[in-house]
Amino acid sequence: MAPANGIRVAVVGGSGGIGRGFVHQLAARPNVAQVHATFCRHRPEDMPPGVCWAPLDVTDEAGVTAWADSLGEVDWLINAVGMLHTPRQGPEKSIRRFDPEFFLENMRLNAVPSLLLAKHLQPNLRHGRPAVFATVSAKVGSIEDNRLGGWVSYRASKAALNMGLKTLSIEWRRTLPNVVVAALHPGTTDTALSRPFQRSVPEGQLFTPERSVRAMLEVLDGLTPADSGGFWAFDGERLPW
Q1: I want to staple 13 with a disulfide (CB 3.0 to 4.6 A). Which of 81, 94, 118, 133 is the partner?
Q2: What is the pLDDT of residues 73-93, one digit of tens each?
Q3: Residue closest to 10 by CA, chosen among 61, 71, 63, 94
Q4: Residue 166, class by beta-carbon neighbours within 10 Å (0-12 exposed, 13-18 middle, 19+ buried)?
Q5: Domains of the chain listed by start with CATH number
Q6: Rounded CA gap, 39 and 12, in Å?
Q7: In the chain, what's the furthest Cα-to-Cα distance?
Q8: Helix ranges, 28-99 (H)
């Protein structure tokens, strides 16, 4: 059961397109007592009142440690940080475009943050109430679902993220059995991350951040610790790893 005064949630990457959607919608929920959110460079404007904002480079372990120490108990943590392209390079269309530095940057921003957050927020989740530790992943990180190839660095980094979350869920079944660990596929969402690639999206399959977040929250609302270690699409479909 949630505490009588409402749950405490944390959104990492709250200044991004999907992260902002999580902050807005969670802050509007009557059962949410407090929203903590992080930003990397600039605190977003026009956000709900009462949100506790903090700057955070989620790849910096010292920063993650300090932020975790400042939070207190957390009932939901959602990590919305990720990258698909840089000003210098986009996803590889073929192996000829593979660049080791771009690959490592994908790993650094897509796979590492959730593991650092899990490492340092364990005490914040150890309160015995049902809790959520969720990360926005991507369906293209599914090895079984990969039928088109390409996008080597992004696919590999999301597959690494998914393996990390699956491994974490097995450990936490023993040490934090109150927590459901979940990887989430948001669908193709109209954000800066996807904008260069939206021409090829079929009509009706490009979602606003509001729609994508609303759907992912509905998925999370339906999960229990018994579901921990799953990979879920926005529409509730359980995806293969």
Answers
A1: 81
A2: 999 999 999 998 887 888 999
A3: 71
A4: middle
A5: 7-233 (3.40.50.720)
A6: 7
A7: 57
A8: 61-71
